[in-house]
Amino acid sequence: MWIKRAITLSPLALQHVNFSFPDCSPGTPLSANAVCDTSLDYWTRATSLVAEFTTQELINNTINTAPGVPRLGIPPYQWWTEALHGVAGSPGVNFADDVEAPYGSATNFPQIINLGATFDDALYEQVATHIANETRAFNNAGKAGLNMYSPLNINCFRDPRWGRGQETTGEDPLHMSRYAVKMVQGLQGPNQDELRLAATCKHYLAYDLEKWDGVERYQFDAQVSRQELAEFYLPQFRACVRDGKAVTLMTSYNAVNNVPPSASRYYLETLARKEWGLDKKHNYVTSDCDAVANVFDGHHYADSYVQAAADSINAGTDLNCGATYSDNLGQALEQNLTDVETIRTAVARMYASQVRLGLFDPKQGQPLRELGWEHVNTKAAQDLAYSSAAASVTLLKNNGTLPVDGATKVAVIGPYSNATFALRGNYAGPGPFAITMTEAAQRVFSQATISSANGTTISGTYNHTDAEAAMQLAKEADLVIFAGGIDPTIESEELDRATIAWPPNQLQLIHALGGMAKKMAVVQFGGGQIDGASIKADGNIGALLWAGYPGQSGALAVMDVIAGNTAPAGRLPITQYPAEYIDGLAETTMALRPNATYPGRTYKWYSGTPTYPYAHGLHYTEFKAELAQPAPYTIATAGYAEFERVATVQATITNAGQRTSDYAALVFARHTNGPAPHPNKTLVGYKKVKAIAPGESRSVEVEITQAALARGDEEGNLVLYPGKYELELDTEENVLAKTQLVLQGDQTSVVPWVKGDMS
């Protein structure tokens, strides 16, 4: 097997540029071109501009580090800008060297997996809007591009070892689809002709592996059934492109059923452009960085780089992150493997996004062009970074230890006790500040004596000397907080995990501290889950919280939850499996459904017992609920299944406890309709309910659509089956209410498989 050991990305792709705006003022080379005429539509303007490019100028501008066209006054542009959870280090962002200088930092919001734990659609859009405004401020200063490569990693978190699962909202495609739409709307704004930013849906398609057992993402061929493409791998991309109206779609490194997406006419032209409407606004497709080269050297789908470049641009990959296009499209033209008009259309699509971003328009009348350094890390952004982190904190275990009342001596122990960088997760830029767990304890428990010690490292050998020093601090404390878990040295891009167990050195210290019979809480950091079964079972450990990568103010948010200043309401957006789940389980196996020798994947299909199930999350108060039974629904086809409402379920949530708290109302369906096997359950709708006071009852409506209830058949159709559907509010450990939904009529394909040549 051909193994691609490392990305071969050209240094050209990594170059930074000094951003500037095209000059349409009178007398300039551009002034006579229709691109400067704001009375015309964006496509006329873009095509008029690109019509003046020579063939070589077209080729030069098919790559992410685009040189522009100096003779026409088109400046260089870097199309690769990152802002996963805040403006981030990347070729398209030029931070000042001094973090305290203007444009030396940007707000570090919590990692996306944390946002997923909130199940709060409105929050996703709020965070995206702040990211867009800060990116605009950087762009106005010549320090960032406006065409984003993140934050929309919408590949579902299929395998718990995946190093980039932290960049996603979790393992459920309905949740991921709703996140994608809201995030695009926040990034791009309400006016499709006057964009804030150009958002990218990535990584298309079935990308959720970095490296496992010698197989790397660059040459991995994901074998996926049509049934599971329809159910799990495609819905969020359809939502992102069709419903969110994202400007850009990014192809992935891996192949899907022997075909690299960069070279797939089916996935790019048949599905994305024609079926989902990517071409309605002449939106463009970009490759992931070096993915066009992978068409040849990773997958051998093409027999040369020249053929790979031709196959990709002919299929509809407009922009190449890398230099494969600029190095090889000239030869492809000479060999009649592609044509100039195909290249011209690709470049026109890219520049059409710049017209819609207002780059060719006068500054006057564009409020976004007025944003500057004073609009970065504002008080509002800081408050949102804190509140979103607090909303994501998930209480996994609590034996009455939390919230803490009246601690006088607090020991903060563990490898996260004084961590700063690790709190951010991957794809983060320099933040304006980072509060450590120890500093947070000093602020929150201001009347107490605070001590701290690492006691051990993230991973590695247990050091008895370090551990004894930490235990001595714990001995003198009345509250012990262990802050540990995993960090980006364990999970990140190009780094999948070999185990999903807690690092044994940390676990040894945790249980030793528990044996001291102190009031003790364990805080688990990291994006992927680690098996906390022994912590769950240890009666000496009173509480376990998951904090993910909570960002610049995340430690303070966690400490406020421990102290009871904030009530926890987060939900696990992924299943916490027992450590042995991965024993003998190939990460390359893409199937979801279990069989006699295969345990299945995600909460829908896993045949074992999780340590903590998907959507688990405890509260400091007690909730009670009722679900009103919806009217029967007669199956019919009408419009998009994602918008065809089957039922509106009224949920009445009552806070029967003593503390004000948020509550994520999650409705799951169980049924045995249609052919076996049947999923364990399926998330069919959710609604975030804020600040329910003690004694208060709140009624909310949870919409259930055809697509939420439909299942894939073996041909790839999403089929809605008649029968009884048992609806449950909350997880199997804590079902608060049940009702039944009846579907009448005949089984119907509500999202038919789109036919086409997939070769």
UniProtKB/TrEMBL annotation:
Keyword line: Carbohydrate metabolism, Glycosidase, Hydrolase, Polysaccharide degradation, Signal, Xylan degradation
SUPFAM superfamilies, A to Z: (Trans)glycosidases, Beta-D-glucan exohydrolase, C-terminal domain
GO molecular function: alpha-L-arabinofuranosidase activity; xylan 1,4-beta-xylosidase activity
Domain of life: Eukaryota
Documented EC number(s): 3.2.1.37
Protein's UniProt keywords contain Cell membrane: no
Pathway: Glycan degradation; xylan degradation
Pfam families with a match to the protein in the record: Fn3-like (PF14310), Glyco_hydro_3 (PF00933), Glyco_hydro_3_C (PF01915)
Stretches that traverse the bilayer: none
One GO term of the biological process aspect: xylan catabolic process
Catalytic activity: Hydrolysis of (1->4)-beta-D-xylans, to remove successive D-xylose residues from the non-reducing termini
Catalytic EC class: hydrolase
Domain Fibronectin type III-like as annotated: residue spans: 663-733
Family: Belongs to the glycosyl hydrolase 3 family.
Protein name as catalogued: xylan 1,4-beta-xylosidase
